[in-house]
Design a protein that fits this description.
The chain is mostly helical. The longest helix is centred in the N-terminal third of the chain and has 21 residues. This is Phospholipid phosphatase 4 isoform X5.
């Protein structure tokens, strides 16, 4: 019961902070003359990002995992299948 009261109190406090900050005046950033050069990047005509190259490592890992699981199910078991047979140690299906 005490934990529930603490949880409700923390949530009410966070909600109060949110409401307080929501109605404050917006922050106006003043850019100093020394840092104007940071915002003067040249405009690029083509902003094409090659996403195919971005996801190649994930795809390679997924293919490696699926072949690993397939080798586990197709691996020969000594002692007759899943019922009490031994499983190769490299198989992810092994239970210690």
């Amino acid at each position: 019961m005490r934990e529930l009261a603490i949880e409700i109190g923390v949530r009410a406090l966070l909600f109060g902070v949110f409401v307080f900050t929501e109605f404050l005046d917006p922050f106006q950033r003043v850019i100093q003359p020394e840092e104007i050069w940071l915002y003067k990047n040249p405009l690029v005509q083509s902003d094409n990002i090659p996403t195919r190259l971005m996801f190649l490592p994930f795809r390679a890992l997924a293919l490696r995992r699926s072949t690993w699981l397939a080798s586990c199910t197709a691996s020969p078991r000594v002692g007759g299948g899943r019922a009490g047979g031994s499983v190769p140690p490299s198989c992810p299906c092994t239970v210690p």
